[in-house]
Amino acid sequence: MAKIVLTRNPFIKNALKSRYPQLAVFIVMLVGYIFAILAGLIGTPVGSHNFSIVFVWIAWWAILILVAVPFFGRGWCAVCPIPLPGEWLQRGAILAPPDKKPKWLNLRVPKMFRNIWLQNISFLLLALFSSVLLTTPNITGIVLAAMLFAAIGLSTVFERRAFCRYLCPVGGFIGLYSQTAPIELRIKDKQVCVTCEGKPCYNGSSAGYGCPWDVFPGGLTKNTYCGLCMECIRTCPHDNIAVNLRPFSADLAKPSTRMDEAFKAFIMLGSAMIYAGVLLGPWGTLKDAAYNVGSSAWFVYAIIFLAIIFVILPGFFTLGILNTKNVLPLKQRFASLSTALIPLGLMFWVAFSLSFVLTNASYILAALSDPLGLGWNLFGTATTAWQPMLTTVLAPAQTLVLVGALIWSARTAQKAANEVKVSSIPVIVYSLIVTSIMLWLLL
Amino acid sequence: MTPRFSLLLFVMAGLVVAFVPLPVPPIAPQERTFRIEAGQFAYSPSELKVNPGDTVTIQLVSTDVVHGLYVDGYDISIEADPGQTATLTFTAGKAGSFRFRCNVTCGAMHPFMIGKLNVGSNNWLYRSIGVALLAVVGVTLSLKQKT
Ligand code: SF4
Ligand code: SF4
Ligand code: SF4
Ligand SMILES: [Cu+2]
Q1: How close is the Cα of A162 to the center of ligand 3, in Å?
Q2: What backbone torsions phi and psi does residue B58 show, to the nearest 5 degrees?
Q3: Beta bridge partners of A288
Q4: Is any atom of ligand 3 closer than 6 Å to the C-beta of A227?
């Protein structure tokens, strides 16, 4: 299947190249974000009536995982407000391209941190506290504020967007799953880059900033670390950057060999399964353990959580691929074959979220009119009663999503297995087993 | 077999596994009564098993704050004040597995206060796993054909 160059359309191209449309979205997002922090801190402690919980964990989450990531990859990062204050401070400007030397420390992030292990850890930290985070406005407000300040802090110490690249708990999985999206930003002609002087797309120029995500656009082969910020479209003097529509999961044809990314796939797969069991299952003891952070039951829960993610899931996976006779080191086969879990994990999250979101979407209308739970009625929708939506199509939809996930994963496994010259069968059987468990948890 | 023909075959087989009606052994409908205790944030018992056609009575007792019970798919609900018993009677006409959940905001974990009502066996789960198995076999064979 051929690619369609979206930026060939002058309207799309100008909209992306100009800073104003993006700025307008940025401002709306930032206002919403700061409002969510305030609502969390000063609004009602009842989660399902507080803007911070309802708009972050129901509305934003639904859009992110059901639409933005599957169809636009890092599209959310293109409009995300979290790094903005830090980035503006770092640049000393909101719109104007740089004309002076950076005034902050502008250090390079140390080599040992230049991977996504910190993001794996920050995600897991939030995941272990998620039952509290998802339901307590105060905590949500504090976490949102902490991310904003962490991003500001890192911007003053390190160059570019260190928070996004190495710490953001959300950015890690958006990057991993963005490889499955049908959108990409790539150069048009490699030869033009080879002869391009000064590489302004990476180093910046009077037209804009060097890649904030610290990638060299000329060398892009996967979506993982390109934040779709569109700076390189602005800076490339040779009009050599394009945004393309492409087949789904094109990036997965060349499997990664990085362990941090491989484990990210297991972390996300495992978390989706654990959430499905804990949050949507009928087992009260599990919910109690997950919610009572600090209690001994919670410690047991945390240990089991981590064991599933770091021992059980990767352990059985390793056992499965152990026998395949091959000259390549096990580590490389492990990393490459775990590519099959990327579409699988994404669709697990879709199936889980469908249930959570459709059940609780009616809170959105109520919270819109009464965002702080103070008895306001701004749009006359404050008294909207809670009513689950589409309960009868939920189960068939989840089956469709999960079976689709399995087929997608199996095809990805075949490609990855081809690359490392092993049989894909063990990985496919593994995917079938975890999918069956997920079906059992959700249906 | 051409690839297109075998794809068609697999899709049809999938539809059969998913939708062909199974013979239902006739079971005389019974009356069943469950006493469910609701407390933050769980039901006890949290899983109910009945047969299709049974007349189900749920006595909901709250042990702390006001709780509710809403049955997905049936779209019926009751609320119980602390210490009081509320009663809901309905005919379990639809077979399958349904979540029931609290529909009165009762505290932090309220959105996840969930139980399960099984009416007959959970056939949709078995059918789904069957379709998944079929899909995997289909994908694996399609690769064999190409090489
Ligand atoms: S990585 Fe995180 S903070 Fe950065 S743009 Fe993406 S979501 Fe926002
Ligand atoms: S500025 Fe344009 S042509 Fe030069 S290296 Fe970057 S993408 Fe290539
Ligand atoms: S500058 Fe270009 S390559 Fe770098 S993050 Fe932005 S859009 Fe992606
Ligand atoms: Cu409740």
Answers
A1: 14
A2: -110, 125
A3: none
A4: yes
Distance CA B4, CA A108 (A): 54
Does the Cβ of A335 fall within 6 Å of ligand 2?
A: no
ipTM of the complex: 0.92
HEC string for A71-110: HHCCHHHHHCCCCHHHHHHHHCCCCCCCCCCCCCCCECCC
DSSP-derived 3-state class of residue B116: strand
How far is Cα A411 from Cα A250, in angstroms, rounded to an integer?
12
Alpha-helical segments (H) within A136-258: 137-157, 162, 169-178, 190-194, 200-203, 231-235
Query: Which residues make Cβ contacts (< 8 Å) with residue A338, sequence separation at least 6?
Result: A262, A265, A266, A317
Q: Which two tokens stand for residue A347?
A: 């669709």
| Domains of chain B with CATH codes | 3-24+125-146 (no CATH), 31-120 (2.60.40.420)
Residues with CB under 5 A from ligand 4 (ion): B 102, 106, 110, 113
Cα A319 to Cα A112, A297, A308, A340, B37, distances in angstroms? 29, 30, 15, 16, 44
Query: Environment class of residue B12 by beta-carbon count within 10 Å: exposed (0-12), middle (13-18) or buried (19+)?
Result: exposed
Q: Give how far the C-alpha of residue A252 lies from the chain's centroid of Cα atoms, to the nearest Å.
A: 16
B145 and chain A in contact, CB less than 8 A? no
- The answer to whether A346 touches A358, Cβ cutoff 8 Å, is no
DSSP E strands: which ranges in chain B?
31-39, 42-44, 47-50, 55-62, 67-71, 76-80, 85-91, 96-101, 114-119
- Asked if residues A388 and A358 have their Cβ atoms less than 8 Å apart, the reply is yes
Q: Are residues A372 and A247 in the same domain?
A: no
**Where a domain ends, among A196, A229, A253?**
A253
Are residue A192 and residue A58 in the same domain, yes or no? yes
Is the domain of A142 the same as that of A202?
yes
Chain A contact for B10, CB < 8 A?
A: no
Domain count, chain A: 2
- Regarding whether A425 and A342 lie in a shared domain, the answer is yes
Residue B97: strand pairing partners: B118
Q: For residue A227, which atom of ligand 3 is closest to its CA?
A: 5
The residue range of the domain holding A244 is: 1-253
pLDDT tens digits, chain A, 443 residues: what are they? 578 999 899 999 999 999 999 999 999 999 999 999 999 999 888 888 899 999 999 999 999 999 999 999 999 999 999 999 999 988 888 887 766 666 778 888 888 889 899 999 999 999 999 989 999 999 999 999 999 999 999 999 998 999 999 999 999 999 999 999 999 999 999 999 999 999 999 998 888 899 999 999 999 999 999 999 999 999 999 999 999 999 999 999 888 889 999 999 999 999 999 999 999 999 989 999 999 998 999 999 999 999 999 999 999 999 988 876 677 888 888 999 999 999 999 999 999 999 989 988 888 888 888 898 888 888 888 888 888 888 888 999 999 999 999 999 999 999 998 888 888 899 999 999 999 999 999 99
Element (H, E) at A243: strand A241-245
Q: Tell whether A75 and A104 lie within a shared domain.
A: yes
Helix axes A341-360, A391-420, angle to 10 degrees: 170
| Chain B residues near residue A361 by CB distance under 8 angstroms | none
Are B60 and B78 in contact by the 8 Å Cβ rule? The answer is: yes
What is the length of chain B? Answer: 147
Q: Is residue A311 located within the same domain as residue A233? A: no
